Amino acid sequence: MLEDRRMSAGDQIPSDIAGRWQTHVVLKRDIFSTVERGTFSAETGPADAVLRRLDTIPWWTSPLARHFLRQEARALAAAKDLKVAPELLFAGKALLVRRFIDGVPLHIARPIGDRAFFHSARQALHRLHRAGITHNDLAKEQNWLRAPNGRAYLTDFQLAMRFKRRSKLFRVAAYEDLRHMLKHKRSYVPDALTAAERRILARKSWLTRIWMATGKKVYMAVTRGVFRFVDREGGGVRLVTDAPAIAAMFKSIPDVRDVAVVAFPDRRAGTGLYAFIEAGNAAIKERNLHEFITAAVGKQKAPERIQVVDALPRAASGEVRKEILQLVAMNQLDLIGPLISAEDDRGVIDRIVAGRRNLRDRFTF
Known about the structure:
It is a single chain. The protein folds into 3 domains: 2-99, Phosphorylase Kinase, domain 1 (2-Layer Sandwich), CATH 3.30.200; 104-226, Transferase(Phosphotransferase), domain 1, CATH 1.10.510; 232-354, GMP Synthetase, Chain A, domain 3 (2-Layer Sandwich). The protein has 12 helices and 13 strands. It has helices at residues 2-5, 62-78, 106-109, 115-130, 168-188, 195-202, 206-213, 215-226, 236-251, 286-297, 322-330, 343-354; strands at 21-29, 34-42, 45-53, 88-91, 95-99, 104-105, 133-134, 144-146, 152-154, 161-162, 256-266, 270-279, 305-309. The strands form 4 sheets. It has a 5-stranded antiparallel β-sheet with strand order 1-2-3-5-4, with helices on one face. The protein has a 3-stranded antiparallel β-sheet with strand order 6-8-9. It starts with a helix and ends in an 11-residue tail after the last helix.
């Protein structure tokens, strides 16, 4: 346990918050920031919080990263009383601390048929826009959180903008926020879309059309080609590039019926991979699987957790329910219950939960 809680070299507490911050787990590392979850001594007492810090990033991304940090701090400060975004607890030149929101990212929560959630999401956007704030990054499902009470919250305000007046640019940005929210609504509750909402979905703003025809291609080439920066479903490069190859290698083993690889916050790696192996032979040992995959892809790319299961949870269509496995990997077991409707599914999931391999990773998103 002591080894898991020890910070790696270069991860000392920044002097701005020395004595006030304790890290529990690194949620994410990339070239623009390191994001950690821990405890912060706020004016009102100890707070479950999230720290974004820039002291470990490369020098050549620092100017842009500092700009993103200032954007986020200004937006969170302006959204203080809206109850739709994390509370800003502390802001410095190279870090900010925000209160942790107890919620599940949209791609994990998968609110299929949940009209109330999207009504709450629309209200959240309305409050944000009335305060003159646009988020500008709501196409990402991980920037939408579903709280245990079903309400919608927004997070990751690095690209947010605050406007003093309702200018033409503000109206365009607010329109795009709404359009991206409606795209998610179309994915999960398509029959709840109104005629007006369908018209919005069918019409991109002029700024978006220009961006997609020009700037987006350059952005994708630079971020993914040069920086190798991806953030699909919050899993980053490992989930995008390593996980498919790992799953294919495991599937090549006789008696392995199926494989699901998901990402989770890991104290040492930042982002860890958790492989669930559905096997028809009880003789298949996790130690042997670990040795096999380490020899194939190397220690750095091998998944941190491997669990052999007799069955994977599946939807009626036969698709593996990765959102449930994601919660197991993140140890957010209390959020699994509402996602289960059939008793047969409950038995499968209970066996997976009982044999989970992440007992130390209790601090998650």
